[in-house]
Please model this.
Amino acid sequence: MEEKSQKYIPALRYDWLTALYDPILRLTLRESEFKNYMVKAAQVQPGQHILDLGCGTASLTLLIKQAQPDAEVIGIDGDEKVLMLARQKASQSGMVIALDQGMVYDLPYPDNSFDHVFSSLLFHHLSRENKLRALREVFRVLRPDGQLHVADWGKAANPLMRALFLLVQVLDGFSTTADNVNGLLPSFFSQVGFADVVLVRQYMTVFGTLCLYHAQKPVQG
Ligand SMILES: C[S@@+](CC[C@H](N)C(=O)[O-])C[C@H]1O[C@@H](n2cnc3c(N)ncnc32)[C@H](O)[C@@H]1O
Model:
């Protein structure tokens, strides 16, 4: 499947699998553990503006809003079908979040408009060129001193994790996932201008090593 022609890769690559995304993630990826950790570590304050990049079904977007109801929380995703599931979840939760359709490498937001940008399991869906384009856009929309929090596949912690990751590569494609498993995401963050790039945590999962990264837009951006 050509990323250029489709513009985005759906959550589980094929549209017909999107409805199964939440249960599969819950069962296989320690989802609640790593997403709750990200939200707690970010310490979002009242009145802050938050973006969830490639929000999918909005699980993380809603956790952020739940942790800080007085923040303005926006999720963006390219896939209108996954956003329909996200809207249903938001409406059932009674929480008010904004859900926008758009491409992560062409964000429809002004410069310096967010305090935190979160992203979970998005970057391995993007080609290297689009990873860098998306990161430049994140850098642009974050205010100086703003924080980037990323969860995605990273360098395999051991040979078993590397072998298990082949399943993700078969599903999501080898070209978009290679930079992840080669451990290159942190260098891409630095390349577009982020400072204090840190690998915060690693989780062993049935699909490989999931990494949490943190980076900061310098005050003199
Ligand atoms: C694996 S899902 C992760 C969803 C959610 N962040 C989570 O952690 O459950 C990846 C999401 O990224 C979206 N996506 C992929 N490429 C995109 C792009 N270029 N622009 C916007 N969204 C994109 C897909 O539609 C999908 O919903």
